[in-house]
Write a structure and sequence with these properties.
The protein has a seven-stranded mixed β-sheet with strand order 3-4-2-5-1-6-7, sandwiched between helices. Helices cover 40% and strands 15% of the residues.
Amino acid sequence: MAKVISLFNQAGGTGKTTLAMNLGYSLAQQGHRVLLLDMDPQSSLTVFMGLQPHELTDTIAQSILDRELMPVLSGIHQMDLVPSNLTLSAADVKLATAIAKETRLKKALSPVEPNYDFVLIDCPPTLGVLSILSLVASTHILIPMQTQYKSFVGLDLLLGTISELQQEGVAADLRIAGVIPNLHDRTAQSKEILEAVTEQFSGVAPVFPPIPRAVAFADASMQHVPLGLYDPKHAALTALNAITQSLEAL
């Protein structure tokens, strides 16, 4: 059974798309079958993987809105991809009166899920219908965050959302795979926030080693390749590998 993992934080700028691409590649390097699923109408993951969203006619939108088969693009950096484009932005309106809309993605994913060990979902940075669909379809959630005060304050809201989904039964089995302190720098505030997050999640979920802010991530994304291909000796890969090992143990 695949581990379906949503990378989600309702705050923007946490680097979730970059993490989805790089963790997927790291898992693929370990021999796992990996599917990346772009659930953000901004389509950053689709772009990072080297595609032009406006040129695509088959995306995740058709699977969710029209119940069409999920369009899987195979063999991109040893991973498969379900792309998105702006068509996905119509989901809020088109699904407003749909029955059991929360399960649309879960049902669309079920035919292809047995083909994979890991499905990584890049969620939008908002707590709207697309993120709810993603969380309901997931077995686990990974929480990327910046080690800054604004991002730390938002964690309570996120934890409340997860708890509500569990209690209402729409995502009763959803578990927190961990928190990823991302874009970390060496300021005093970042150190304090990291300590506070570690304390907050003690006994709840692991807080992984921080991933440093590095221009190489952006440079690799511009080249449409994971960091491990762009710079195989980059220091940040150590933290990514540690997260990968934890995901393998879920």
